Amino acid sequence: MLLGYAQLPLYLTQNSFLMFENISLDISNGVAILTINRPKQLNALNKQTIEEAHKALKNIELNEAVGVVVLTGAEDKAFVAGADIKEFADFTIAQGGTLAQRGQELLFDLVEHYPKPVIAAVNGFALGGGLELAMSAHIRIASTNAKMGLPEVSLGVIPGYGGTQRLAQLVGKGKANELIFTAGMISSEEAFRCGLVNSVVEQDVLMDTALKMASKILRNSPMAIRSAIKAVNAGYTSGVNGYEVEIEEFAKCFGTEEFKEGTTAFLEKRKANFRK
Ligand code: CAA
């Protein structure tokens, strides 16, 4: 059932109200939990959902109170079961190209290069575009019931939201080829063994685990973390020398108040306070 305009939840974010139908946003204690919220469609990503997630992330980026984003899916069956097959089933070649390009630009690349850490809390099926979304995140924590895979070739298409690239980066080319060609699903334990997820926990503690990790991250310098994200990503960007970007970002840190605070705190034998 579609909610009427007046019934949609309103979110006050960075000096503006946002209205979302397919995602929800919960901001507290420095963490923004962005939930893909179409549980009847197993949280499949249609155009509107991608646009809403884009808007929310752009807004949170400006919100200094937010230091970490946790991405998850509504209810306990799916993180995201992929791009919305019903929406693209009759697309032409040109529309297929636009779908992949717009999706990558609006959401997947935005997440990968997001200046604040993004943790994917993978709470169920993460298939196709869903696994691609989790792989765009900087860190993945999966629940024991999660099932992951890139089943696109079973639909006569290939992963289009960066999956052919990011899966190979995370698990190596051979395993990525196996997962893509067989269109199979793997358990979270297997995903952990092959390096696809950072850790696996029971579903009832998934969000707590993600929030605990977020709180550890929040103790550290936001500017240094932003630089680390840039430097790590640079190593996976063709035509960019990651070592050079590391040197540049390392040097920049020396001009920040946060570097002064971090080093001073160490010398004064106290905890640094980066979020005054
Ligand atoms: N797109 C649209 N709707 C989806 C969907 C998707 N990716 N995945 C699930 N749904 C919908 C189903 O159509 C169903 O809706 P209706 O009740 O209206 O029919 C509802 O969610 C519940 O799904 P199922 O009845 O199929 O649930 P299940 O428990 O029997 O099966 C599942 C679960 C194995 C995840 C199965 O839903 C499935 O295989 N989904 C598709 C997975 C997939 O192929 N993902 C890749 C999409 S292509 C892609 O992502 C391209 C890209 O890279 C850009």
How would you describe this structure to a colleague?
The protein is α/β, with parallel strands linked by helices and 276 residues long. The protein has 2 domains: 5-218, 2-enoyl-CoA Hydratase, Chain A, domain 1 (Alpha-Beta Complex); 222-267. 44% of the residues lie in helices and 18% in strands. It has helices at 47-61, 85-88, 93-112, 129-136, 163-171, 173-182, 188-193, 206-218, 222-234, 242-253, 257-267; strands spanning 10-12, 17-19, 23-28, 31-36, 68-73, 78-80, 118-122, 125-127, 139-143, 147-149, 185-187, 199-201. A hairpin with a 4-residue loop joins strand 1 (10-12) and strand 2 (17-19). Helix 9 runs antiparallel to helix 10. It is globular and about 60 Å long. Acetoacetyl-coenzyme A (CAA) binds at residues 41-42, 44, 81-86, 125, 127-129, 132, 151-152, 155, 159-161, 163.
